[in-house]
């Protein structure tokens, strides 16, 4: 009879691995009891007439992941370590974490048997001893999502640099003249009784006038008079051009 082939069993042991900026990788000796990776958006809520409160989608916020566990004083002497080749002492893990914190470079967290692969900056690192028990060192750290970016250099103009001159045969457009109270202007357009555009009257055509009053934000913001001071009326901004 033909021998039955043995089914290969997959390695289902979960491991938490950290890789620093120099590609140095360690496995935490004891797996955390839990881990949470949260997605959150910067959505805005506003009140809309006849609809009430609505939500406007925003961009994804920076994600964070926190890890809490403990380091056995001598990881290779206890039976509950998750790592096959742990460091000989807890201090080596502490030194590795402190160096990663000081390096100012992102580190990567990978959890085997899952799809969790998170790159972030080590923002908070806590190492402690509790209840006077010196055989284990509780620790925790927080990784904040790292997004690559690139600075753009802006060239600063040198002092004394010659300005560009207009080539021969080309004319440079004159800057627009400012229009204000007392300005002499050329008017082409309909006259109105008030600044709100009520009471349409005669139409001015290439008339030389002066601005006597200005009503900012009004439909007809300029009140014009003749050059000798005679009242004419209010006109729209598009009807006025600096003389």
Please explain how this structure is put together.
By secondary structure, the protein is mainly beta. Helix content is 5%, strand content 36%. The chain has one helix at 90-102; strands at 16-19, 25-27, 44-48, 52-56, 64-72, 107-111, 117-127, 136-145, 184-192, 200-214, 222-225, 231-235, 240-242. Strands 2-1-6-7-8-5 form a six-stranded antiparallel beta sheet. Strands 12-11-10-9-13 form a five-stranded antiparallel beta sheet, with no helix packed on it. The chain has a two-stranded antiparallel ribbon with strand order 3-4. The longest helix is centred in the middle third of the chain and has 13 residues, at 90-102. The termini are far apart. The model has no long low-confidence stretch (mean pLDDT 84).
Layout of SSEs?
Blueprint: E1 16-19, E2 25-27, E3 44-48, E4 52-56, E5 64-72, H1 90-102, E6 107-111, E7 117-127, E8 136-145, E9 184-192, E10 200-214, E11 222-225, E12 231-235, E13 240-242
Antiparallel strand pairs: 1-2, 1-6, 3-4, 5-8, 6-7, 7-8, 9-10, 9-13, 10-11, 11-12
* Computed CA radius of gyration, to the nearest angstrom: 38 Å
List the strand order in the largest sheet.
Answer: 2-1-6-7-8-5
Low-confidence blocks of residues: none
Helix percentage: under 10%
By secondary-structure content and strand pairing, the structural class works out as: mainly beta
Order of helices and strands: EEEEEHEEEEEEEE
The description of the largest β-sheet is: 6 strands, antiparallel
- Portion of residues in beta strands equals 35-45%
Q: How many helical elements?
A: 1
| Strand count | 13
- Calculate the terminal CA-CA distance, rounded to whole Å: 110 Å
Shape verdict: rod-shaped
Mean pLDDT over all positions? 84
């Amino acid at each position: 009879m033909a021998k039955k082939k043995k089914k290969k069993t997959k390695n289902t042991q979960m491991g938490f691995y950290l890789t620093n900026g120099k590609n140095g990788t360690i496995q935490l000796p004891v797996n955390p009891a839990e881990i949470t990776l949260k997605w959150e958006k910067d959505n805005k809520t506003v009140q809309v007439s006849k609809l009430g409160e609505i939500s406007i989608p925003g961009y994804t916020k920076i994600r964070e992941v926190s890890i809490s566990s403990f380091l056995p004083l001598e990881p290779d002497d206890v039976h509950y370590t998750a790592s096959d080749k742990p460091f000989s002492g807890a201090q080596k893990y502490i030194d590795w974490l402190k160096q990663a914190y000081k390096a100012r470079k992102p580190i990567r967290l990978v959890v085997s048997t899952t799809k969790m692969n998170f790159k972030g900056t080590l923002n908070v690192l806590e190492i402690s001893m509790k209840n006077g028990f010196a055989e284990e060192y509780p620790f925790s750290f927080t990784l904040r999502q790292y997004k690559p970016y690139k600075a753009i250099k802006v060239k600063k103009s040198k002092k004394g640099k010659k300005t560009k001159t207009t080539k021969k045969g080309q004319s440079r457009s004159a800057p627009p003249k400012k229009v204000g109270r007392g300005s002499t202007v050329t008017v082409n357009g309909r006259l109105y009784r008030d600044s709100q555009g009520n009471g349409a009257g005669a139409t001015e055509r290439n008339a030389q006038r002066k601005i006597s009053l200005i009503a900012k934000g009004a439909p007809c913001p300029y009140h014009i008079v003749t050059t000798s001071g005679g009242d004419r009326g209010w006109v729209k901004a598009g009807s006025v051009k600096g003389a």
